[in-house]
Amino acid sequence: MTVNRAFVPRAAQAATQAISATGLRKSYGDKVVLDGIDLSVPQGTVFSLLGPNGAGKTTAVKILSTLITADSGELSVGGHDVAADPQAVRAAIGVTGQFSAVDGLITGEENMLLMADLHHLSRREGRRLAAELLERFDLVEAAKKPAAGYSGGMKRRLDIAMTLVGGPRIIFLDEPTTGLDPRSRHTMWGIVRELVADGVTVFLTTQYLEEADELADRIAVLHDGKIAAEGSAEELKRIVPGGHVKLRFTDPDNYRSAASALRDAARDDEALALQIPSDGSQRELRSILDWLDSAGIEADELTVHTPDLDDVFFALTAAAPARNNQPKETVR
Ligand SMILES: Nc1ncnc2c1ncn2[C@@H]1O[C@H](COP(=O)(O)OP(=O)(O)OP(=O)(O)O)[C@@H](O)[C@H]1O
Ligand SMILES: [Mg+2]
To answer: Which residues have CB under 8 Å from 109's CB, separation 6+?
Structure first.
């Protein structure tokens, strides 16, 4: 049986969602940052809020985590009304802000123990939990050194370890991997996946579309104060036109004869490149290659481009500069 959402009372909807927002608005002076946005995040899932610099991601995180108040909107986190019961919300969540909460003057271990104190854990329990989390986040060796000397990735891991001290069931991660190298980023993704496997709900903001693609069950793109699109990565990719095969030539004569043979291809005379619409499947590629062979066309480079979240992002946030279609895969 399908239940029409419209007939489910709002309170009941909110109860099944770890996070929900309806009509969330926030302005700073004349500047409207969040212009009435709706969000809902089911328990135990990863929700990713995507948006360019200044889109309002951190503002949304701060409002939902009770650090600042909204101008209006119905907000519920962990089953608690954010405006009416911020204390209960705070008890249910953990927040890793965009800018590190790590105190560089003290050691990693001391940072952890400080968090344990803030959560009123006994000395013994605090030590046990700190040791366990430092181990889990591969910080045992660094634990006795001042955090100021940690690398960006280590600081970020310590930041999240500190967030986990209170055992939150809902975690907000504001750009957890910005500035990290690929290895540290993958480590962070592993940490998020482990949290979700434990049933934790993760609200993640990021500027990396690949990250949202990797981690998120649902993705919302924030643009001009509104949610420009929302869905799974696959759903969002369907918004933009399909992929293509790109043929590049070095010799202008070869390019021109190929262009006249391939009338359906889009031409880029400057780059000596032709684009043929294609879904990137093996079958289509084979038929394109066969056809090129039979027409005696030999391109100097052939690349396959499948639409990715970058395309969606640029299509939705149209003010962004045109993207040079980076190939995902080079065939030749
Ligand atoms: N305290 C404040 N006073 C005035 N304007 C603010 C304040 N905080 C944020 N803003 C403005 O609100 C807008 C949204 O900022 P926010 O930090 O939420 O963006 P963001 O999406 O997190 O960006 P980034 O990707 O750079 O972190 C920006 O234009 C910012 O200048
Ligand atoms: Mg931000």
So the answer is: 130, 134, 143, 144
Q: Domain boundaries in the chain?
A: 11-237, 244-305
Please state whether beta strands 80-81 and 72-77 pair in parallel, antiparallel, or not at all (unpaired): antiparallel
Q: Is 59 near ligand 1, meaning CB less than 6 Å away?
A: yes
**Which residues crowd ion ligand 2, with CB under 5 Å?**
57-58, 98
Ligand 1 pocket check for 50: Cβ under 6 Å: no
Could you give the maximum distance between any two Cα atoms of the chain, in Å?
Answer: 79
Cβ partners under 8 Å of residue 160, min gap 6:
96, 137, 173, 176, 188, 191
- How far is it, in rounded angstroms, from Cα 3 to Cα 281? 37
Ligand 1 touching residue 99 (CB < 6 A): no
For the Cβ of 206 lying below 6 angstroms from any atom of ligand 1, the answer is no
pLDDT value, residue 323: 41
User: Does an H or E element contain 40, and which?
Assistant: strand 31-42
**Dihedral of CA 52/58/59/63: which sign?**
positive
Instruction: Please check whether residue 230 is in contact with residue 218, taking contact to mean a CB–CB distance below 8 angstroms.
Output: yes
- CA of 205 from ligand 2 middle (Å) equals 8
Q: Across the chain, how many H-helices and E-strands are there?
A: 12, 15
Q: What is the pLDDT of residues 108-143, one digit of tens each?
A: 999 999 999 999 999 999 999 999 999 998 999 999
Q: Between β-strands 170-174 and 93-96, what pairing exists: parallel, antiparallel or unpaired?
A: parallel
Global pTM reads 0.79
pLDDT single digits (tens) 55-77: 999 999 999 999 999 999 999 99
Could you give the CA distance from residue 137 to residue 250 in angstroms, rounded to a whole number?
A: 50
Q: Tokens 């990565």 identify what position? A: 233
In which order are the strands placed within the sheet that holds 17-28?
Answer: 31-42, 17-28, 72-77, 80-81
CATH class for the region spanning 11-237: alpha beta
